[in-house]
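Listing 4. Sequential folding, example run.
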Amino acid sequence: MFESVARHSPGFDPPSYHETRVKYLKYHVEMTNLSLDDHKTYWKKFGCTIMTDGWTDKRRRTILNFLVNSPLGTFPIYNIFFS
């Protein structure tokens, strides 16, 4: 993907593996935590619904997801993988 961008934009320097794994991951984790804080404030004020979703992957392992739903949206809280 970056190669096709570079063909149209000479001088384009794609992010390094380190930037992607450290800098950008850290930024997105922080943004997710801020969003979660907003959701938690809303949940305390207006309430929420706890939901669960389970499914089986290609290797027939069960995956159980716990989610919290409110008018702000659905937020994944916890996953359990059974082998």
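-- end of first protein; second protein begins --
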Amino acid sequence: MTKFFDNINHQILLRTVRKYVEHPGILCLIKSWISVGILTKERIVKAEKGIPQGAVISPLLANIYLDEFDKSFSDTDWKLVRYADYFVVMAKSLEEIVAASSH
């Protein structure tokens, strides 16, 4: 996953987070946190997509965001081990690994 954290879609992330978090205050905090601007020398640039990779909550949000990705492997013979944007797909043969790479 190239530049995964930089390319997370905020709308999809918030929609997915709402499946697990009902408290409006927590949802508001997450929304504020992911949309906070980036301070440059000239101005503040609003974040349209992506989340800060080094922040404490980012791996949790990445795991929530990739929940459907994880579920897509449940109906296969492949085994997925993933944490945030790092993952390994295990299979019984090289042919299955090649097939998994196009999944």
